[in-house]
Amino acid sequence: MKVTVDGSLCTGHGRCYSLAPDVFEPDDEGYSMQRDVPIPVPPGQEELTSRAVHACPEGAITATES
Ligand code: F3S
Fold first, then answer.
1. How far is CA 10 from each of CA 28, 43, 44, 61, 66, rounded to the nearest angstrom?
2. How far apart are CA 17 and CA 43, in angstroms?
3. ipTM over 0.90
4. Which of 13, 22, 23, 51 lies 20 to 30 A from 1 at CA?
């Protein structure tokens, strides 16, 4: 599983890194640090990551299986 944060949609709500801090990280301004690049999801983090995907109010996070 990989996730990608669309940098044009992320407005810094922070739910992603609050829910799945082992996957997402904030930058200095509260946006997701990794934007527009696929982020590998570590084993065991899939459920929290899925919750983060659905929790983003901007719909900025896309999950792909691979
Ligand atoms: Fe950005 Fe959504 Fe996370 S707006 S900081 S990707 S919860």
1. 14, 25, 25, 8, 23
2. 17
3. yes
4. 13
Q: Tell me the three state secondary structure of residue 65.
A: coil
Pocket test for ligand 1, best of 3, 16, 50 (most atoms within 8 A of CB): 16
What pLDDT, in 10s, does the model give residues 22-43? 999 999 999 999 999 999 999 9
11/46 Cα distance (integer angstroms):
23
Residue 27 tokens read as 């930058």
Residues 6/8/9/15 CA torsion (nearest 10 deg):
60
Polymer length of the chain: 66
Ligand 1, atom 2, lies closest to the CA of: 56
CATH number of the domain residue 9 falls in: 3.30.70.20
